[in-house]
Amino acid sequence: MNLSEYRKNIYEYLVTKMNDIAPNLTSLIGEMVGAQLISNAGSLSNLAKLPSSSLQILGAEKLSFVIVLILKQ
């Protein structure tokens, strides 16, 4: 199986699981961003318990990490 087919299969799996587990989150922000938020929060339960102001912090931490990686190049 080549890499593009593998990536496509993983994406299809992610779409299916996100629609099953968190359909409202998926419809609001998409599969990829929703999965990243769940991952950063630790679990779907932890994400649900966070105040809305913490969501911005989760996104900002990732953005600052990406900026550091870009600046190091």
Shape: elongated
Q: Please tally the helical runs, counting DSSP H or I stretches of 4 or more residues.
A: 5
Structural class: mainly alpha
Indicate the radius of gyration in whole angstroms. Answer: 14 Å
Q: In which range does the helix fraction lie? A: over 70%
Q: How would you sum up the major sheet?
A: none
Q: Tell me the distance between the termini.
A: 32 Å
Strand content bin: under 5%
Overall strand count: 0
Order of SSEs, N→C?
HHHHH
Could you state the oligomeric state of the chains shown? single chain
Mean pLDDT, all residues: 81
Describe it.
It is a single chain. The termini are far apart. Helix 1 packs across helix 2, helix 1 packs across helix 3 (31-41) and helix 2 (23-29) crosses helix 3 (31-41). The chain contains 5 helices and no strands. It has 73 residues and is an all-alpha fold. Pfam families: Nop.
